[in-house]
């Protein structure tokens, strides 16, 4: 499939098409009636929210694989006291927390020593320790985290937000996924499903490619001037619009038209946003960016997320590699913390200093959590746990220095302040000014929404 940027970036593709003669005339300036399709109103234009918004944009820090709550943000002294004892299942033993805990900030929020940088922002964190979801396998759980459904192909949360609010910068994608995983649902995690294609996320790089090496192909054109590209695109779009008129039932055509226009505009804007050479050395150091630093890759992603939000992008997802430690948990969690903790702390500090945290909602977490016991031969490991785990919110109108909900005394399942993923989605939309019951799209004879027929706003976490 030819992408918009590939089409814009290659004169040869146009000249080899069935319309090569017309295309050549258009490029040579001999076709006078150029169709300026880019001048119409875009579906990505900012839209009025359902109610006053507390947040204007979203950054999702996705910890793929499932961080352990009892190693990070939910202290379990009873688990430590019973460490080594036989668990509910006789084949398992209870595993203690592997890090010390301290009360942080003026709020006294408990955060383990695994996250010293995030701990510095304890008074900004709203910790959800009563999270639960429906399934404990990675791929369906990730799909449910991103789309609300593990069984059906549904639009991603980012696509719903873009559909509901549009975006502030028409020269950049409204929804960007940095270094998303190639498995566990892949593109479905940032896709638009039955929503118009213009609302799908723009993936930059992938989980196996350092963001420094991730490129958007054909962002520059060495053959045509800007004016020539515009005339080329006007010709192509004239044919696209003719096709759209002949097939009004196919929203994909409109998506292609808008994507071509966005790709054309991106050529000027994207290089500027992605160029961090103008950032001060102190900023780069703060984010942990450096050739030999374990935090370099994630630090670059977090800095790009700030730059994108600052430039008007509505939703940015930043993805870390793998928190799935069934054994070697200490080494594995230490490695992931070394890669992510400093950049996350820097992002929160940077947003706050720039006056952006108040209207930027930051969400941290994985697709589920981990058990308080282990099925391995060593106590250095935990299995998947969908019944009780932790995520946190910051900024964007939430209560800071606050822990909502909890699991039982050992950490098996949420028992108070239970928040299902549907509730989390409803709350995120609410903070962005969207009513999850009103944000609907009619498809196949019924109205669909991100939360389906579920979800309640968690009022307790609202600031």
UniProtKB/TrEMBL annotation:
SUPFAM superfamilies: Alkaline phosphatase-like (SSF53649). InterPro entries: Alkaline_phosphatase_core_sf, DUF1501. It comes from the Bacteria. It holds the Pfam family DUF1501. PANTHER family: BLL7424 PROTEIN, DUF1501 DOMAIN-CONTAINING PROTEIN. This is Sulfatase. The lineage of its organism: Bacteria, Pseudomonadati, Planctomycetota, Planctomycetia, Planctomycetales.
